[in-house]
Design a protein that fits this description.
The complex is a heterodimer of chains A (476) and B (451). With 476 residues, chain A is an alpha+beta fold. Chain A has helices at 7-12, 16-26, 84-95, 129-146, 210-213, 218-233, 254-261, 266-270, 331-337, 370-375, 426-429, and strands at 33-49, 52-70, 73-79, 110-111, 150-168, 172-190, 196-205, 240-247, 291-294, 315-320, 323-324, 345-346, 355-356, 360-363, 379-391, 397-409, 412-417, 420-425, 433-436, 441-442, 447-451, 454-462, 465-473. In chain A, β12 (345-346) and β13 (355-356) form a beta hairpin. In chain A, α4 (129-146) runs parallel beside α6 (218-233). Chain B is an alpha+beta fold. Chain B is built from 10 helices and 20 strands. Chain B has helices at residues 6-20, 76-92, 119-122, 126-141, 211-225, 242-256, 258-262, 323-329, 361-366, 416-421; strands spanning 25-41, 44-62, 65-71, 147-166, 171-189, 192-195, 198-202, 234-240, 283-286, 307-312, 315-316, 337-338, 346-347, 351-354, 370-378, 388-399, 402-415, 423-426, 436-437, 441-449. In chain B, strands 1, 2, 3, 4, 5, 6 and 7 form a 7-stranded antiparallel sheet that branches. In chain B, α4 (126-141) packs parallel to α5. The chains are: A alpha+beta (476), B alpha+beta (451). At the A-B interface, β2, β3, α4, β5 and β7 of A face β2, β3, α2, β4 and β6 of B. β3 of chain A pairs parallel with β2 (44-62) of chain B, so a sheet runs across the interface.
Chain lengths: 476, 451
Amino acid sequence: MSFSDSFFARRFNLTPRDLERWLGEALSRGGDFADLYFEYIESTALSLDESIIKSATQGVTLGVGVRVLSGERTGYAYSGDLTPERILKAARTAACIAAGPASVVRSGLDEGEKLDLYSVPVPAAETSLAERVALILRADEAARSADVKVFQVQASFADNIKHVLIASSDGSLVWDRQPMARLNVSVLAKGEDGRVENGYQGGGGRVGLDHFTSQNLPEKFAKEAVRQALVSLDAVEAPAGETTVVLGPGWPGILLHEAVGHGLEADFNRKKVSAFSDRVGQQVASPLCTVVDDGAMASRRGSLNVDDEGTPTRRNVLIENGVLRGYLHDRLSSKLLGSAATGNGRRESYQHIPMPRMTNTYMLAGESDPDEIIKSVPKGIYCATFGGGQVDITSGNFVFSATESYLIEEGRLTRPVRGATLIGNGPEALKWVSMVGNDLKLDEGVGICGKEGQSVPVGVGIPTVKIDRMTVGGNA
Amino acid sequence: MSPSNTQEEIAARLIELAMARGVTAAEATVSEGDEFEAQVRLGEVETLKEAGSRAAGLRVLCGQKVGSAYSSDLTEAGLQRIVESATSLAAISMADPHAGLPDAADLGQLAGDLGLYSDSIATLETAFKIEQARAGEKAAMSVDPRIDNSEGGSFGSYTGWRAFANSLGFLGSYRTSSCSLSVVPVASVDGRRERDYWSSSARTFERLEAADYIGRKAAERVLRRLGAKKAPTQKVPVVFEPRVARSLVGHIFSAVSGDAVYRKSSFLAGKLDEVVANPLVTVVDDGTMPGLFGTSPFDDEGVASRRTTIVEAGVLKSYLLNTYTARKLGLRTTGNASRGITGNASVGHGNLYLQPGEEKPEAIIRGVKNGLYVTELLGSGVNIVNGDYSRGAAGVWIENGELTWPVHEVTISGNLRRMFEQIEAVGDDLEFRGSVACPTLLVGEMTVSGH
């Protein structure tokens, strides 16, 4: 596709000459680099509560962010208005970070490389509202009929289609269409003793509506949410203190996101404020652990054809057989640290400055049979599902909260236990991994990662993993 | 009423266009803001960011069916598209017997100057703001040689407008301003690093804490963490310093907010007039206090802000409600509607606080023989449905009434129901640093999990 056929050229009559002019303005006081990030998002959110579609919302947000880099300095300005005067004004504001003679902008913009990971022929945003409404009605019906203990069901479907255009003073010009869709079901169930518990299941990715009408049916989400609520109704107090923890496959990969992922973002390491700073080449995990961050996976929530600075994403090995191999970079950190770009420069929107972020972070499968892993544990807990997590990247301390877990007694899962927070220290926790399953699973597509006030969609994954020692915040 | 500024004009125009389309009722929100941020690290400017944006949202009712839309395109054609989109969405939603605008009698706004806006913020010079961030960081870095790194000092300022109109004739707007300064020093000893922060924000520059004070306070906090270790697993009293105690007040808010109550997804649902906390506990939501961050003349559906006592001497006296949740519960709105720029309102809070007690924080600590003083909480392990509580924590161990060694990598757990009953001491140190405030609290017993 040529630029003149791209979304922004057609919709807003942008020409390469305009882009070059604004980049020139951005570098009018000097600076090493400038870029323009145009964004246009159409979103729809439908939600059901008490079997009624109570809310249906659509909206459009658009804008452009102008960035100027000068050494370690960043100047940034944005406009929610795409008239040439406003863009020019933003460029002049961002330019103020530098103070010197104008830098030369390479003349002529060439289309940069990009991947093709989500060429969804019909994004959810272009389907009829009735089709999307039908999905949540089906989820509601399935959850309510799954068990008499279920007394509240909420279901929602949200999708958006984001068009981006990134033009840089080094002459690259990239545009992309990024679809996203997600279905959520949450339920409340009441036990015979009056106790109330909740259950939740969600999923999606850079997919079309067919994702939810072929394999990932709304009924599947509903049944899983109900199952989790019912399990919780039988849960007893979790143990308190250090114990052996077995993580189930899939979403528990959030451990990697918190324990190592954030600590390996290069901005923290460039500033030497991470617990992982200056540790490349060192053993930071058991030799059984190989952890990668891969933005180049088809259709996944954390995937991108190009990152938000126009760099194609790729598979980056973070930890190989327990040894720290590298960090996640954006343009600024790769330049300052002299490393290759990794395609991890991401931002929440045109109003935000890009920074190194994770995409899809997971641990490669090992050789153990998951059943054998559980059988090997005389006493511990098995965590099947988690809520959120958090990390203090400087001390390396991280937490993540189990929402479905079980006691392991004499190699068998016995009783479900109540929600408990697990806590550990990033560079230490994975050294206690003693078995890694052959059952790598990626999450269903629900991850949202927050950093310095910016949220971006991410994915995680992990096989069944045994951690010999970890602190569990139970109450028993 | 006739519009008194462009924000009100846009909101009123949206209502006009929507009513002309034949909708039953409509409400429109317009929001506009200008932000500035300067970050300085190790004395050098690292980031300067400056921009403005605005957007409008519309919610319409066609009978009892609701549709919403928003856009940042505020041209006449853009407004027409918002109306079209909201109306067509109402067509696919389903009749909700409780949906509607507030009762006309509940609409209104507080009169007089609430101290939400100060010209002083818009006129601060960029160089001055950079200097503030630099001074804060410098103050932190010069306290102790163990503070050998920094995530920087940051100064932000904001000015904005919010306007709201509905088809019952409500039209109002207010302007806000704020500024903030934060400092994040990093300290290390024996190759182990720690960071902490201190920050201040205010609606006028005059009320911001001094850069030097913020820097020294941040330094004191990070130094206190050096050499932290795990504590043994045990059940002990836990003292929450104000910065973390606030989160407990936040959990009370989640548990009394109307949505959670009518869905019965809260451990406080159905508990009105019952004892839910120790008699020392009184929790108030007050959206009328001049100059504070939780103050506004009206809520996000045009109902005047007010003061509501939520818990009085341990007894649950009121939920926090908007029009919808009030109708679901057969109650009256408490003026707590909250929303972004469109969609159905959720429930928000004004200035939400736990009333201060008589005791000095030092006296509360002195009363603990063996326990944990918590200065940081990590993670999201709080379940409002049943009150289960388990979060990561860091702080200082208390031995014989004295703060002794720093603690990290532990969790504290319990159940909110029990924790509120076991609030055995409330400090006199209430201070509004944002819209949620709480003095030092002592919870009689929680499980600390460590090694």
